[in-house]
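Entry for the shared binder. Reason: the reviewer on the internal report wants the predicted structure included alongside the sequence.
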Amino acid sequence: MEIKMLTKEEDFPKKLEFNYEELKEKIATKAEKYHDLVYTDDTISDAKEDRKTLNKFREAMNAERIRMKKKYLEPFNIFEGQVKELIELVEKPWAAIDAQVKGYEERLKQEKHAAIKQFWEEQESSVKKLVSLDRVFDSRWLNKTYSMNKIEEEIKAFFATTETEIATIEELNTEFEDQVIRVYLKTFSIAAALAENKSLLEQKAKREAYAEEQRVKKEEAEKARQAAANAQPKPEPKPVQQSTQSAQEEQRRPVEVQRKPEQVTVDFRVTATRDQLQQLKAFLNNNGIAFGPVPSETKEAA
């Protein structure tokens, strides 16, 4: 069942000969002439004729090329069709045999997969509660060249490594243990798990620092408010309402010019943040309380 070529390859024409050199020389001479030729409005009709001549030559050459290609490929096309016909004769039996071979190979893979699963389940490891076989299954294990001994060694090594690295994480006594173990089980990288723990601790520290900063600001603002409130003069008590007779007598008295409340000047020192001093300044302005630097003589007296 092999092809034996009855037509010898040495009988194939090595070259299709024609007046190539003669045509090449003539065409080169003509092309050079046309290349340097400049047409004017008066000679544009000559340009059209020259274009027609050259185009006719192009079409003739191309037509001959196509004709010879078909003629030269004709025996090959017949040969190709016959070969395809022979291939079709063996296509169906080949497909039937191929299906049986693939079915046999698939059955072996299924049996090997079952053996791997059984070995996995027989191992006494707490890791099985956290990781399924599918998570770590290597498709290469099903290859015929991958021995069961090597597969069993790799599974044992995986259990040992994972148990050790999870124990390392637990020894950290970190409050983020669940998140860190979750990252480890996703990547099976102790480096990634430790990096996650470090990141979570840094985020917590930043949150606590921010909360403490806000607490201090609030406390200082409250102190400034109280200091401003203590520095404000207390309002004078309202006069007790007089009786009708006393009011009439009061009306008969000469009208006195209403006096402004007595102002009191108090010098004091305030220790606060810039934000708190701005709040204190706004409070004094809003309540019409005059303030300014302590006079130099007062400082000397103090």
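Summary line for the report: The chain is about 65% helix and 0% strand.
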